[in-house]
Design a protein that fits this description.
Strand content: 25-35%
Pfam family, one: TOBE_2
InterPro entries: AAA+_ATPase, ABC_transporter-like_ATP-bd, ABC_transporter-like_CS, ABC_transpr_MalK/UgpC-like, Mo/tungstate-bd_C_term_dom, NA-bd_OB-fold, P-loop_NTPase, Transp-assoc_OB_typ2
Mean pLDDT: 90
Largest sheet: 6 strands, mixed
GO molecular function: ABC-type transporter activity; ATP binding; ATP hydrolysis activity
CATH superfamily of the largest domain: P-loop containing nucleotide triphosphate hydrolases
Protein name: Carbohydrate ABC transporter ATP-binding protein (CUT1 family)
Strand order of the largest sheet: 6-7-8-3-9-10
Order of helices and strands: EEEHEEEHHHEHEHEEHHEEEEEEEEEEE
Distance between the termini: 33 Å
CATH topology of the largest domain: Rossmann fold
Shape: elongated
Number of helices: 8
Keywords: ATP-binding, Cell membrane, Membrane, Nucleotide-binding, Translocase, Transport
Length: 374
């Protein structure tokens, strides 16, 4: 195990006489034994970052340290890393046993030692009954277990996982998620996983590094990322369904400050905790998670009156979607046993303690908002 540190790491590709900056001055510090996720949309630079840690991509500037040792100029095999790709990359002619043993044989280990290590790793990953099979006879989940076994049999200081679950179906992804977490808890190896799936990152990681356009947006625990997003991008990227985000302007109605939703003219009262933060006449980006919106009775004063556009019954929860105007929808998630039809009247109240405000120009969270409770 080892600490992993990236300081000012950048990557610039030169294509047809122009420069493309894939990663921009990236800073990250992973603690010894920590499970960290690099999360972001396709093309945000997360896989490039992982490949630079592994030594498969040369960094343009900055510094990478593993266990306190600078590894910028070291080849992959000398960095003490284990790497599992999304495409498995198993050797088809070799048995599972020989695929896992390949790296140890290349190091000149004895067959007795190899057998002992392969059996140990196979037991960890529950693949002992697959050792004599060829890769063609394995399911996707089994291939990924073998792929990970090859990465960890070297006892790496840092384990790097590049979209390891992306080829699996929904149920198998969920099972492998649990297995990855169990495995990490047993080997306690510093682990970095690249994923575009925010549910995967939330379930697996101790801390999440959210990336966009090559830049680190926020690095924190799943709770911090979900409840205290530093900007509108993080707020909208994390959560399923995503956070409701729409434009509002602060105006006064009968001497009471209200948020007027732009585009539809509907309004609702500014919560007491935000009255010292907002200014009359100013525009903001208003955010609230679908789980923090309540369906209330018509007589509930100050509720937002609107109409149902789509109602989804998902069994354990219901999702209600409301169109505010031609460009803006908001969603509500509730476990209350209610039924709606498109066009039904509905009255909504936002949980005042869990409202987020963002600067429409910069996307940054407005300063002065109190901490949002769990």
């Amino acid at each position: 195990m080892a600490e992993l540190t990236l300081k000012g790491v950048s990557k610039i590709y030169r294509k047809r006489n122009r420069e493309v900056q894939a990663v921009k001055a990236f800073n990250l510090s992973c603690r010894d034994g920590e499970f960290v996720a690099l999360l972001g949309p396709s093309g945000c630079g997360k896989s490039t970052t992982l490949r630079m840690i592994a030594g498969l991509e040369e960094i343009t500037s900055g510094e990478i340290r593993i266990g306190g040792k600078k590894v910028n100029d070291l080849p992959p095999k000398k960095r003490g890393i284990g790497l599992a790709f999304e495409n498995y990359a198993l050797y088809p002619p070799l048995s599972v046993y020989d695929n896992i043993a390949f790296n140890l044989r290349a190091q000149g280990k004895s067959e007795e030692e190899i057998r002992r290590e392969v059996d140990r790793i196979a037991a960890l990953l529950h693949i002992g009954d697959l050792l004599e099979k060829k890769p063609a006879a394995l399911s996707g989940g089994e291939k990924q277990r073998v792929n990970i076994a090859r990465a960890i049999i070297r006892r790496p200081a840092v384990l790097l996982l590049d979209e390891p679950l992306s080829h699996l179906d929904g149920r198998m992804r969920q099972r492998m998620r649990t297995e990855l977490k169990r495995l990490h808890n047993e080997i306690r190896c510093t682990t970095v996983i690249v994923t575009h799936d925010q549910s995967e990152a939330m379930a697996l990681a101790d801390r999440i590094a959210v990336m966009n356009e090559g830049e680190l947006q926020q690095f924190g625990t799943p709770f911090e990322i979900y409840r205290h997003p530093v900007n509108e991008f993080v707020a909208g990227f994390i959560g399923d369904p995503p956070m409701n985000l729409f434009a509002v302007q602060v105006v006064k109605e009968e001497e009471t400050p209200v948020f007027k939703i732009e585009g539809c003219g509907k309004s609702f009262a500014v919560p007491d905790r935000l009255r010292s933060v907002v200014k009359e006449g100013m525009r903001y980006r208003f955010g609230v998670r679908p789980t923090d919106v309540r369906v209330v009775a018509p007589e509930d004063g100050g509720a937002l009156a609107t109409r149902v556009t789509v109602f989804e019954n998902l069994g354990e929860e219901h999702r209600i979607h409301i169109r505010l105007d031609k460009n803006q929808m908001i969603s509500v998630v509730t476990d209350t046993d209610v039924r709606f039809q498109p066009g039904d009247s509905i009255f909504l109240r936002f949980d005042e303690e869990k409202i987020h405000l963002f600067d429409p120009a910069t996307g940054r969270r407005i300063q002065g908002q109190e901490a949002i409770p769990a």
